[in-house]
Amino acid sequence: MSTAPMIDAQRLGLMLGELRLPTIKHIWGDFAAQADKEGWPASRFLAALAEHELAERDRRRIGRHLAEAHLPAGKTLDCFAFEAVPMISKAQVMALCAGDGWLDQGSNLILFGPPGGGKSHLAAAIGLALVENGWRTLFTRTSDLVQRLQVARRELTLESAIAKLDKYHLLILDDFAYVSRDQAETSVLFELISARYERRSLLITANQPFGEWNRVFPDPAMTLAAVDRLVHHATIFEMNVESYRRRTAQARRTGAGRPAAYTTPKVLEIIRDNQDENEVLASDN
């Protein structure tokens, strides 16, 4: 009598393993005991097991996609200072993070602005949110990707290398305008843009506006063609703000504990005036 349940449990475990249902294999015993105790109908018991299996699969899938995305650590929307970039709508960014619509259509997102303005942070944060919502992304410095594509070209596998990138719904090319003017480099970059046009999305961060992209593409015709493909279906954010790193450095010089977001040139001027006044009072005494 005591061996029959054990034999059945072992057999059930084997079957669940063959069916690739590891979560159900792990939890079914506890759920069965609870179902017997509380008198669950069979449909409720089965639904509870299926829900946990699906939830665990989602968790594992997101973990795999996060690992392959190579997103920089700590760059989330929660810690992005939207108040420091007033030209960016948080509501619009949150809508983009859902991914529906623009990723299905192969549309692009382009972030312009000077160094230190938060472009890479925002790009990574959007990429993270998209992964959490079920999309696949890859974050890479443009120069690093171009070097890999150049190697593929020399090995006569460029077409295959670009095709492998199709598994990513969004390809984030950081520091786009830092690519040199070498013809071989820019030609593989152009082929990537052309291959993904209206099929798969790109998110680009760049310090220079389109008018200065002749530094990236030495051929004017290639520059025009690349820009045309990128902007045809694109959302463009211009993040023309003072460098966050510079603001942080200023805040450290004015005293510990002052948040960089609140350290403006006007505040710094007031602080300096107060310091000068204190020095005058000290000399009078």
TrEMBL record:
Annotated source species: Novosphingobium malaysiense
Entry keyword annotation includes Lyase: no
Keyword tags: ATP-binding, Nucleotide-binding
NCBIfam families to which the protein is assigned, alphabetical: IS21_help_AAA, PRK08181.1
SUPFAM superfamilies named among the record's database cross-references: P-loop containing nucleoside triphosphate hydrolases
A GO MF term: ATP binding
Residues of the AAA+ ATPase domain: 105-237
Family: Belongs to the IS21/IS1162 putative ATP-binding protein family.
Name assigned to this protein: ATPase AAA
Top-level taxonomic group: Bacteria
Gene Ontology biological process terms in this record: DNA replication
InterPro entries linked to this entry: AAA+_ATPase, DNAC/IstB-like, IstB, IstB_ATP-bd, P-loop_NTPase
Pfam families linked to this entry: IstB_IS21
